[in-house]
Specification:
Layout (H helix, E strand, L loop, with lengths): L2 H31 L8 H20 L9 H14 L1 H11 L1 H23 L10 H21 L2 H31 L10 H26 L1
């Protein structure tokens, strides 16, 4: 593993950690200002947020979102995301209990770290071949998500979560491989070139976390 790659990946993970802090801060802001009764709409919220996250993932993969922008926009997005996810996280805290909730968060972090390490040990671009399959999965997930908003039930929601979990675990392998490939080919020149990678990894992490929480909630009933 090249020293340059280590430096870039350490920077990306630093910005990702800051992004997660902004998300947590947004959660507490949401707790302060969003009415408590919104928690009762958590099932509908997860369906809508799921579609929005998939759309954002599609936009970022297809360069509809610019590949180069200020990291401050990532922090702003994650802060707003934390506010919007307050009812959902609060629902899972009530439903699963703080112990299981924290365990799933830590489990997500461990899974994220292991997959990142697996991908980083391969040559740059090793997992880029997964791109077309994963993107097709995203499009299928978007269709299923839209159906789920209007016609879905608990079991259908569980199936979507399982499929989404597989897709976004695959995207961790893909995104880390893409970063390594970009470093080797000198596509990353400054901080703003890292922003799209930080956003993509944030979406990977949050989608995996939400899907694991949803699966655990279903199995806990």
């Amino acid at each position: 593993m090249s020293r340059e790659y280590k430096n870039v990946i350490s920077q990306i993970f630093k910005y990702l950690a800051i992004s997660l802090v902004f998300m947590v801060f947004g959660f507490f802001v949401g707790q302060r200002f969003i009415p408590q009764e919104y928690i009762y709409y958590a099932n509908r919220i997860i369906a809508i947020l799921g579609v929005l996250f998939v759309l954002l993932a599609i936009f970022s993969r297809k360069r509809i979102i610019p590949s180069r922008f200020s990291m401050n926009y990532v922090y702003l997005f994650t802060f707003i995301d934390g506010i919007l996810m307050y009812p959902l996280f609060q629902y899972y805290l009530y439903d699963l209990g703080i112990g299981l909730f924290v365990s799933i968060v830590l489990g997500t972090a461990v899974l994220f770290g292991v997959l990142s390490m697996v991908s980083s040990r391969k040559s740059g671009g090793y997992y880029l071949g997964l791109g077309n399959i994963l993107f097709a999965g995203l499009v299928g997930l978007l269709v299923l998500g839209l159906i789920n908003i209007f016609f879905g039930g608990a079991r259908f929601n569980l199936v979507i979560s399982a499929i989404s979990l597989l897709i976004f675990t695959g995207y961790i392998l893909y995104d880390i491989s893409l970063i390594k490939y970009s470093v080797e080919n000198r596509f990353i020149k400054d901080k703003n070139d890292l922003s799209i990678h930080v956003l993509n990894l944030y979406l990977d992490f949050i989608n995996i976390l939400l899907n694991l929480l949803n699966i655990a909630s279903y199995l806990d009933d």
